[in-house]
């Protein structure tokens, strides 16, 4: 049991390293997993997926994704993800070809000479100004440091009670991007006000439930990641909106990104203490671009 647990942790670490962009670290952890006897049949699709994504060479990644599809049942989630990645790569290459085919603006030699003269003229003005108006010499006076008070406040370290998830198992794909839940923290005590950084407590009878998510932009410019509405579904069927104006202490929110880039951050919900969480529901902002996707969180 302990051996299997350690092996699973290696795979979790490999997944986290991949989503942080560390292909080399992913390959190293995967090598440790195999060297320690990893290779159970039920884990084979995941290992093939990690092995393909860890390759630094794009052509080699594509080759190994094709190998995954050839050796895994077509309805396996990893085979489906591999097909989707290959389709995304194909679409991206077509966009690049179309962009390169657009006419380029050429600059004549006369225009370049004119620009050079403007730059040179600006430099001459700056040099002349500095000669005619030399900077004043400032007198530097040694300042003795003020003695520090013995009662200065110390920073409070808030406990991190989160635990990582195998992100591939908690994924939503939609036209604007790919959203994956990489960690969960139930009853979080690290929620702070975004503007004052003051530690917050939930209302009586409630708890903070936080999800760390990674979002990859697949739609040009993603100025409001994750480009979708997120709601937490509870066991009783009710849907909870994320808390606004809050964040996990010491972290940053999801940042605007462009096509092919990834951003990560925490989403915080306030839910009843006695009600279990069922799923994360991902829906289009206009409720029409794509059907709502449910990421099960039972057992996390």
Blueprint of the fold:
Elements: H1 2-19, H2 23-35, H3 44-53, H4 58-71, H5 77-100, H6 109-132, E1 163-164, E2 171-174, E3 177-186, E4 191-193, E5 206-217, E6 221-222, E7 229-234, E8 239-240, E9 246-248, E10 257-258, E11 262-272, E12 277-283, E13 293-296
Antiparallel strand pairs: 1-3, 2-3, 3-5, 4-9, 5-11, 6-10, 7-8, 7-12, 12-13
What characteristics describe this protein?
300 residues; four-stranded antiparallel β-sheet; globular; 6 helices; five-stranded antiparallel β-sheet
Number of strands: 13
DSSP helix fraction: 25-40%
The CA-CA distance between the termini, in Å, is 19 Å
Instruction: Count the DSSP helices.
Output: 6
- Secondary structural class: alpha+beta
Report on this structure.
- Helices cover 34% and strands 23% of the residues.
- It is of the alpha+beta class and 300 residues long.
- Strands 1, 2, 3, 5 and 11 form a five-stranded antiparallel sheet that branches. Strands 8-7-12-13 form a four-stranded antiparallel sheet, with no helix packed on it.
- Helix 2 (23-35) runs antiparallel to helix 3 (44-53) and helix 3 packs antiparallel against helix 4 (58-71).
- The longest helix has 24 residues, at 77-100.
- The radius of gyration is 26 Å and the shape is globular.
- 24% of the residues are buried.
């Amino acid at each position: 049991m302990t051996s299997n647990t350690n092996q699973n942790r290696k795979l979790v670490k490999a997944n986290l390293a991949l989503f942080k962009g560390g292909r080399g670290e992913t390959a190293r952890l995967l090598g440790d997993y195999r060297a320690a006897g990893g290779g159970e049949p039920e884990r084979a699709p995941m290992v093939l997926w990690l092995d393909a994504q860890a390759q630094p060479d794009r052509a080699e990644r594509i080759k190994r994704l094709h190998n995954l599809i050839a050796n895994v049942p077509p309805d396996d989630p990893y085979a489906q993800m591999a097909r989707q990645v290959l389709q995304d790569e194909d679409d991206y290459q077509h966009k690049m070809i179309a962009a390169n085919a657009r006419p380029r603006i050429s600059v004549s030699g006369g225009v370049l000479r004119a620009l050079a003269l403007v730059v040179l003229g600006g430099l001459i003005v700056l040099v002349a100004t500095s000669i005619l108006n030399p900077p004043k010499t400032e007198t530097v006076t040694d300042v003795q440091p003020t003695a520090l008070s013995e009662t200065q406040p110390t920073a409070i370290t808030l406990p991190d009670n989160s635990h990582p998830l195998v992100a591939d198992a908690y994924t939503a794909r939609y036209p604007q991007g790919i959203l994956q839940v990489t960690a969960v923290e139930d009853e979080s005590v690290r929620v702070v006000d975004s503007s004052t950084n003051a530690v917050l407590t939930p209302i009586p009878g409630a708890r903070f439930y936080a999800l760390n998510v990674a979002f990859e932009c697949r739609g040009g410019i993603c100025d409001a990641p994750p480009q979708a509405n997120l709601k937490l579904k509870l066991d009783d069927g009710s849907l909870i909106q994320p808390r606004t104006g809050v964040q996990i202490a010491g972290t940053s929110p999801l940042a605007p990104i462009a096509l092919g880039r990834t951003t990560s951050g925490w989403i915080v919900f306030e839910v009843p203490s006695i009600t279990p969480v069922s799923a994360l529901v991902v829906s289009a902002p206009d409720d029409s671009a794509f059907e709502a996707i449910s990421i099960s969180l039972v057992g996390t």
